[in-house]
Amino acid sequence: MSNGSAAAQTPRRRMAQDAGRLVGKATGPALNVLEEIGNTVTLMGQAFFWLFRRPFRWRQMLQSMEFIGVDSIPVILLVGLFVGAAFSLQTVSAFRMFSADAMVGSTVTLALCRELGPVLAAIMVTARVGSAMATELGSMRITEQIDALHTMAVNPVQYLVTPRIVASIIMVPLLNMVFVVVGVLGAYLVAVGVLGVDKGYFLSNIDWYVDIEDIVQGLVKASVFGLALSSIGCYQGFYAKGGARGVGLATTRAVVQACVSILVLDYFLTDVLFAVQG
Amino acid sequence: MVSLFRKRKVAQVPVRDERFQIQVRGLHKRFGDNEVLRGVDLDIERHQINIIIGGSGQGKSVLLKHLIGLIKPDQGQILVDGMDIVPLKDYQLNEVRRKFGMLFQYAALFDSLTVEENVAFPLVEHTKKSKAEVREIVRAKLDALGLHGTEKRFPSELSGGMRKRVGLARALVLEPDILMYDEPTTGLDPIATKNVDNMIAETAERLGVTSVVISHDMASTFRIGDRIAMLNEGTIVVVGTPAEIMHNDHPVLREFLTTSGVVGHR
Ligand SMILES: Nc1ncnc2c1ncn2[C@@H]1O[C@H](COP(=O)(O)OP(=O)(O)OP(=O)(O)O)[C@@H](O)[C@H]1O
Ligand SMILES: [Mg+2]
Asked: Domain locations in chain A?
């Protein structure tokens, strides 16, 4: 008898558990995302708090700038050149259909300034630097180096996170500029050099249609992306746990989250910046 | 007889007592389901070598990290020179932490810095000494620990024992009031062990620092310890002088002593 009732109860209880788990599965990720964003923003806030406390970490700042900015130049040059070239190829063939190939220069330049430059530069930096931040801080966390900083009365956020975030905010816009310049060069080489678009039209149209606002829009986006990707990379590394495996997971999460954030932020920033700039 | 690790049944606010540099009362800490500390009461006596022994995974490292504010307890008090550090914010803790030097169980050296830069780190951060002075101090500390000529190497190029000694040099370099060592001699050969023991004893003697040492090594414990406490299943089960410990008949302690060969069987 008692056996029977227990057997009858078990499936029902299991069903309730399953339902609970399903609800958890459905809402859990959304809550986790919000929590993760909240935590990342909190770390970002701490990083700025410590930026204005003494001492100012010149050495860490310069090292970060070198690693994030200078060392990223080769890959930015390469990617920028080919993105500009490919985009030019596409645009020329499309614009030829209605004899508007004189507009190729300005179209490509505008797209590079406003969209492709900031987004692709930031994604390249994420791949190279955001991942490295997560790995480096993550291994410092699991080998207790971050605790060691604490015990030596050195704030690890100020020592490790602030320089990386500030350097990214400064360097990603500069890399974006490099990207745009070589991108336009790549477009020029293909359009004028290979496909025979008129050189004068290509250049004068750029001058005529591309305003300073377009460049500013790109720079603003790039610095926001720099802030996002470095905060995410640092957050994931700084709070990594669970040994080498944990560091690997943190790195993966950092790259995925940063790329998604860049693309989502891009939409909203475009919206806001168009509204602001009119 | 003054007992330096005094054990009390009830957690209460201790009256400030100048003999004790650190007083721990009713410390509780759990990680998820794992209840690691279950009401630790412990007094760390000033200018003495206080040794904490206990089995692997009993929470010795966790306890040590509480003393310097790296981990916040779920419950309890930690008084450092009479001030409760549990409610302090991180930036307030920095003041307290300058009293401490700590050697981590796995050394926790900065692997992006050379040995020299690692040992110099606290000096560069907290003193106004010139580069030449810093270099001189670092060299002296490294020489004293048998690490001559390793200045320019990176931690990844050192053996485990060498790394530990570099960590020791880094903990000692500011000559703090309180030195905490998490298993300073684990993984060292007998001669290096003896050297490190001497270094701990000599530092305690010469500078009058308060030492807190976690150890598995019973021979070292009895060689240098002034006071010994045993952590078992989340509480301090035995405290006393080496002589008192030797004759205590707590079963886990007995097993520790007999298996390590410090006292004979039967
Ligand atoms: N950050 C942490 N998160 C979760 N659990 C932890 C954490 N740190 C320690 N623990 C757990 O606390 C317990 C005590 O760990 P602790 O490192 O203090 O042991 P120990 O006494 O130092 O052992 P050993 O002599 O092997 O170093 C272990 O069960 C460990 O799994
Ligand atoms: Mg330990």
From this structure: 20-277
Bridge partners, residue B210, by sequence: B178
Distance from CA of B173 to the nearest CA of A (A): 11
The answer to whether the Cβ–Cβ distance between A152 and B68 falls below 8 Å is: no
Q: Cβ separation of B69 and A143 shorter than 8 Å?
A: no
The residue of chain A nearest to residue B171, with distances taken between CA atoms, is A152
Please say whether the beta carbons of B157 and B105 come within 8 A.
no
Query: What order do you get walking across the sheet with B83-84 strand by strand?
Result: B34-45, B20-31, B75-80, B83-84
Q: Tens digits of per-residue pLDDT, A178-231? A: 999 999 999 999 999 999 888 888 888 888 888 899 999 999 999 999 999 999
- The ipTM value here is 0.87
Write out pLDDT tens, residues A138-188. Answer: 999 999 999 999 999 999 999 999 999 999 999 999 999 999 999 999 999
Which residue's CA is the closest to the ligand 1 atom numbered 14?
B59
Please give the model's pTM, rounded to 2 decimal places.
0.87
Separation of CA B61 and ligand 2 centre (Å): 4
As given in the structure block, the two tokens for residue B256 are 């520790």
Measure CB to CB from residue A147 to each of B90, B108, B109 and give the nearest one: B108
